[in-house]
Amino acid sequence: MKILVEDNHVPAAPVLDVPEVMEHPHMVQRGIIQTVSDPEYGDVKIPASPMRFSAFPEPLELQASILGQHNAEILGELGYSSEDIARLDQEGILGKA
């Protein structure tokens, strides 16, 4: 005897891997596939959040950061002085593109 989840009103869906999600017609129609501008690679398609909120009905426009782009800002927020940040940068401790 075969029992189907659909026959018993059990919500079910296939589990997709990333390439399947990127090509799935439903995901494309819902706007789950988002294009992000990357300074090195150009426009890159990524899976966006499937969540939709009334205050943000459309996905946010995103741009990928380059390595080290926000080092000074983040370290400053953590209490590092501009002199300390400059020294870490000169010593090659901070990663950057």
Short description:
The protein is α+β, with helices and mostly antiparallel strands and about 100 residues long. It has helices at about 20-25, 25-30, 70-75, 80-90; strands at about 35-40, 40-45. The protein is elongated, with a radius of gyration of 22 Å.
Written account of the structure:
With 97 residues, the chain is an alpha+beta fold. The chain has 2 domains: 8-64, no CATH class; 65-97, no CATH class. Helices cover 29% and strands 12% of the residues. The chain has helices spanning 18-23, 25-30, 71-77, 82-90; strands at residues 33-38, 42-47. The protein has a two-stranded antiparallel ribbon with strand order 1-2. A hairpin with a 3-residue loop joins strand 1 and strand 2 (42-47). The relative contact order is 0.11.
